[in-house]
Amino acid sequence: MAQGQARKSEGWWRAFHEKFIVEERYMAGTARRNLYRIAVGLMIVGAALFVVILAGVLQRGGVSDIDAPVRSWLLTLRGEPMTTLMIFLAIVFGPVALPIIILVVTVVWGFMARHAWRPILLASAMLTGVILAQIIGRSVGRERPPVDLMLFGEDFTFSFPSGHVLGASDFLLVSTFLIFSRRRNTGSAVLAFVAAGIGVVFAALSRLYLGYHWMTDAMASVSISLVVLGAVIALDTWRTARIPGEQITGTLSTEDSSQG
């Protein structure tokens, strides 16, 4: 009986191991180094942009000087059809609809995929973005634009950074990488990232148009998202990218497999 329980336990561990731990792909050493370079580059650029934006916000100058002109320009674009579209985008990328979308995507992806590594990584990236937005928002304590400019209800929470934009940016950029990094067609990946970028722009535009954020709030969110994306690329590459002939450390040994 003890031997049977041991085999059952070993079988459960193998199933868990293969579903949640093992996911490896092979590529040339140059390709893997390029992924690490991209990851580091994204994190450096994102962090540098965030520091510049934060400095401007705290000092009430520098890059934050664009906030008032952008707001004034968007006020001239307001109209019923545009407002309806922007409210729709705000709902889709909002704190109710977006978490539901992410939950459905990660659960369905996790069950359908052979390995759950990527949906777990996506969920972790989204959670990281939420935590960062809360910490930074409470630390900076920036006020939102005047309440009388808000078109979709009053909001008195902190403005910097935009949680809507950060969530949309993390979801679109990270999921695009996790999906298209496994495909060999570079053109499709480029088009997918262009589409993701357009989605981020619309998410940011909706928050600015509806009067809930300053331009630098949205810019800060995108810069944070670049750091998150870089971290995801680095972690995913470290965990899954293998060079042909390289020793694999995350799988069961041949001896273990034969005993099953």
From TrEMBL:
Any one GO molecular function term: sphingosine-1-phosphate phosphatase activity
Alphabetized SUPFAM superfamilies for the sequence: Acid phosphatase/Vanadium-dependent haloperoxidase (SSF48317)
Residue span(s) of domain Phosphatidic acid phosphatase type 2/haloperoxidase: 121-233
Keywords: Membrane, Transmembrane, Transmembrane helix
InterPro entries documented for this protein: PAP2/HPO, PAP2/HPO_sf
Keyword Membrane included in the entry's annotation: yes
Transmembrane segment boundaries: 35-58, 85-112, 119-136, 156-180, 189-212, 218-238
Protein name per the record: Phosphatase PAP2 family protein
Gene source species: Arthrobacter oryzae
Phylogenetic lineage: Bacteria, Bacillati, Actinomycetota, Actinomycetes, Micrococcales
